[in-house]
Amino acid sequence: MKTKFALLVFVGILMSSVIEAQNKITVGVIQYDWTDIDKSFKELHDLGFGSCQLNYNKKMDRAFAEKLKAASLKYKIKVTTVVGVPGHSVWNFREGPATIGLVPVDGREEKIETYHQMIDFCVMAGVPAMHSHFGFIPEDLSSSQYKDFIEVMKGLAEYAKERNILIYFETGQETPITLIRAIKDIGTGNVFINCDLANLLMYGKANSLDAVRLFGGLIKEFHAKDGHYPDPDNPYELGKEVNIPEGEVNFPAVIAELKKQNFQGALTIECELTGSHRNYLIETRKYLQDLLDK
């Protein structure tokens, strides 16, 4: 009887920890409009959202940071990251590798300056992390381009680390193992992953469920987005983005896996809460929350 009782206690504790973990997963949106942050956060709260990512704008200053902190506390909306992709970026396979992030040399200094400003704003606003697309990471470890990129990222990560800010790579332009390797080679201990489930498909780099299993504890945030693999008849363009759950992301399996991994971050729907998007966001929040509550 004692053994049976002990087993029941153990199972109860295990189930409690699973329930507690899934209750800590919030569903959020990307906040683009920051002109009246109190009004925006009230709407998020009233619609049942628990978090948001903040799209960076260079006009954000200390005064706005104070307003952001006040609204976050008032409406219990956690701002999980500040997100931005500075500079000229072309979202396709022809020009993307030469324009996106810090892999290309052209425009790099200006982009780093903006990244520093994003990190500084995180400090002012009490936001724990910033994230971005940092470019198509080269797969050849011996190439000068790869070595140069790693050194540049080390410098940026050290700048963030000195200020107790995390940096997240957004997935998409590289295979999961390439990203894991790059984070290991950067080696500063404050670089993690914002896992965009659709990007993995749309760039043709991985099945999202397999990627989540590979990334494991490196994932700190998710972009809840859906899409398809690139069209083989047009291999120069990304795959098509579609509404959740109309694409090839297996959300039930992914959410089951992240609960298994004891993930406690946010599922951020990459869409703005305005106009025609409003109903989609409300419906998608319910869809994701129902999966989390199962």
Describe this protein's structure.
This protein has 294 residues and is of the alpha/beta class. The strands form two sheets. The protein has an eight-stranded parallel barrel with strand order 1-2-3-4-5-6-7-10, surrounded by five helices. It has helices at 2-23, 37-46, 62-75, 96-99, 108-125, 144-161, 176-186, 197-202, 208-215, 251-260, 277-293, and strands at residues 26-31, 51-55, 78-83, 129-132, 166-170, 191-196, 219-224, 226-227, 241-242, 266-269. The chain is 47% helix and 16% strand. The protein contains eleven helices and ten strands. Helix 2 (37-46) runs parallel beside helix 3 (62-75) and helix 9 (208-215) runs parallel beside helix 10. Residues 2-22 have low confidence and may be disordered. It starts with a helix and ends with a helix.
Q: Order of helices and strands, N to C? A: HEHEHEHHEHEHEHHEEEHEH
The whole-number mean of residue pLDDT values reads 91
Rg on CA atoms, Å: 20 Å
* Number of E-type strands: 10
The main sheet comes to:
8 strands, parallel, barrel
Query: What kind of assembly state do the chains in view correspond to?
Result: single chain
**Strand order in the largest sheet:** 1-2-3-4-5-6-7-10
Keywords for this structure?
single chain, 294 residues, alpha/beta, 8-stranded parallel beta barrel, 11 helices, disordered N terminus
Question: What is the secondary structure topology, with strand pairs?
Answer:
Elements: H1 2-23, E1 26-31, H2 37-46, E2 51-55, H3 62-75, E3 78-83, H4 96-99, H5 108-125, E4 129-132, H6 144-161, E5 166-170, H7 176-186, E6 191-196, H8 197-202, H9 208-215, E7 219-224, E8 226-227, E9 241-242, H10 251-260, E10 266-269, H11 277-293
Helix pairs in contact: 2-3, 3-5, 9-10
